[in-house]
Design goal:
Elements lengths: L1 H16 L8 H13 L1 H13 L3 H14 L8 H4 L2 H11 L8 H26 L14 H17 L4 H20 L5 H21 L14 E7 L4 E7 L2
Antiparallel strand pairs: 1-2
Helix pairs in contact: 1-7, 2-10, 3-10, 6-8, 7-8, 7-10, 8-9, 8-10, 9-10
Length: 243
C-alpha cells in the first residue's frame, strides 16, 4: 500500500508541475478531449488483458502456439527489439528529422515514461504473482512489452506530425516484442496486452501533462551533440560539447 501511495503522489506531482487548474480554457478543454480519445486503445488493452488472464482461452492459445514452434524453441530477439524505437528516435534526430521536442526533452519524457510505467508494472508483478508459461513467477504484466510500447509511444509522439511512417514503425517493433515473449514461452497473452496498455497510457499521460516542461539546460545551445552509439561490443550514447 505504501508503494501505491507513493505512485499516486508521483502522478499528482506530474500534474502539479505543469500548473493545471480547475478553470481550464477552451483550448485546454479541446486538448483534454483529444487526450481522452488517445486513452481508448490502451485502456481497452488493459481491460481485455485483465478479463482473459488465467482463462482457458489464453492457456489453450499458449499451448497451440508452443506446439506450432516446438516446445524447445527459443529466439531471444525480444531482448533487443524493445530498444529499437529509442535508437530510431535519436538516429532521426542525428539526421535532422523534425521532431516535436528538443533531444533533451525527448530524453526527459522517455526517462519519466519508463520510470513510471515500469514502476507500475513491477509492483503489479509482485502483487499479482502470476506464474509464467514456463513455470517461473512474476508473469503479469509483461515488462519487456511494457518497455517496448513505452518507447514506441515516445517515438510516435515525437514524429507523428513530421514523419508518420517513422512514428508508427515503433509499434511494429513493440508488437513483435510482445509476440516473441509468448513464442519464447515467457508470457501469456493477457500479460502482453496489459503491459502494452500500461506503456501507452503512461506515456500519453506524460506527453499530455509535460512534466518539468521548462527544464532544458541545452535548449539554446548549438554546441551539444547527442547520438546513439552502437557497435559489435557496446551500445550507449555519445555526448559531446564544443568549447
Amino acid at each position: 500500500m505504501k508503494k501505491s501511495g507513493l505512485l499516486i503522489l508521483f502522478f499528482l506531482c506530474i500534474v502539479g508541475v505543469n500548473g493545471q487548474t480547475p478553470d481550464a480554457s477552451k483550448t485546454d478543454s479541446i486538448k483534454s478531449t483529444h487526450f481522452l480519445k488517445k486513452t481508448i486503445v490502451p485502456i481497452s488493452l488493459i481491460g481485455v488483458g485483465v478479463l482473459i488472464s488465467n482463462s482457458d482461452f489464453e492457456r489453450s492459445l499458449q499451448t497451440d502456439l508452443r506446439n506450432k514452434v516446438g516446445n524447445d524453441y527459443k529466439f531471444r530477439i525480444d531482448d533487443y527489439l524493445l530498444y529499437v524505437p529509442v535508437a530510431e528516435m535519436y538516429i532521426a534526430d542525428a539526421f535532422g528529422v523534425k521532431a516535436k521536442n528538443h533531444w533533451f526533452d525527448q530524453t526527459k519524457y522517455l526517462f519519466i515514461s519508463n520510470l513510471v510505467s515500469y514502476t507500475i508494472t513491477g509492483n503489479l508483478k509482485i502483487i499479482i504473482n502470476k506464474t509464467r508459461p514456463d513455470g517461473l513467477p512474476y508473469s503479469f504484466p509483461s515488462g519487456h512489452t511494457n518497455i517496448a510500447f513505452t518507447n514506441a509511444t515516445v517515438l510516435y509522439n515525437e514524429f507523428k506530425d513530421s514523419a508518420p511512417v517513422l512514428a508508427y514503425s515503433g509499434f511494429a517493433f513493440a508488437t513483435t516484442t510482445g509476440v516473441f515473449r509468448m513464442i519464447n514461452n515467457k508470457h501469456w497473452l493477457s500479460d502482453v496486452l496489459t503491459g502494452a496498455g500500461i506503456g501507452i497510457l503512461v506515456t500519453e499521460l506524460v506527453y499530455h501533462f509535460e512534466p518539468f516542461k521548462n527544464f532544458n539546460p541545452f535548449k539554446n545551445s548549438k554546441n551539444v551533440s547527442f547520438y546513439p552509439l552502437i557497435n559489435e561490443e557496446n551500445y550507449g550514447f555519445y555526448f559531446a560539447y564544443k568549447f
